[in-house]
Amino acid sequence: MTMVACSFTFEIGPEIRSAAPDYTLLAIELDIDNGPTSDALWEEIRACAQDVAARYKMEEIRLRPAIDTTRRAYKALGKEPNRYRPSAEALSRRAVKGMELYRTLTAIDLINLISLRTGISIGGFDADRISGRRLVYGRGRADEPYDAIGRGPLNIEGLPVWRDDMGGIGTPTSDNERTKLSEATVHLLMTVNIYHPATDEEIRTLADEIIAAFRTHASARNPRISVIEQ
Questions:
Q1: Which one, of 27, 36, 151, lies nearest residue 104 by Cα?
Q2: Is 40 a domain residue?
Q3: What's the predicted TM-score (pTM) here?
Q4: N or C: which end of the chain has fewer CB within 10 A?
C-alpha cells in the first residue's frame, strides 16, 4: 500500500545531526476522535506499566537503548538529562515506582503507552494549532520562551526543540501549551524521535503499530507518514 506523506515538511538542524548521528524522525499525521480514555485502553496502559516494573530496576531504566541514546543527545547538546528527563524515561520511572500514570485523553494516553513500551519520547501536537507547514528540529536557546504543558516556563536551552513559525512546540521532555492536545483535537501530528539506530523495517513496523493502536482506540483515519533520516 502506498502511504501518503505528511502535510508538513521537516528539517533536522546541524546541531541535532552532530549530537545525535543516528537520529531518525518518524512523523505521523492522523485524523482522530480524541475523547476520554476508555477502560479498555486504560487496562492496556496499566498492564504495560506493570510489565515495565517487572522487567527493569530503577537504575536500569536509563540503559534502555532508546532512552540511553536520547540522554546522550541531551548531554551532547549541553543539557543534564537527570534534571530534564525525557518523557519516556519519566514514564518508565513512574511505572517502576509503582505509581499509576495520569489518565487524561485517548491520544495523550496512547502516546504515553507507546513511549512506555518503546522508550521513545514522542511529541503529540494539535496540527491545526501549528503555525505554518514547516517544522525545524534544533537546539534550545538561552532565554527562549517556552510554556511547557503542566509545568509553566521551561528552560529549554540545550534541549532538542521542534519549532514552527512562532517558536518551540515540542521537546522530548515536554510539549508546549500552545499546540497541546484537547478533546477538540481532530488532526494529530506525532513526532516519534528515534535516537537509537533503527532499520527501515523496524521503523515501518513501529509506524504500523502506532497507526493500528490509534485506529482501535481513536478511530484514526487518513494516515500520513514521513521518515527523515540523517
A1: 36
A2: yes
A3: 0.96
A4: N
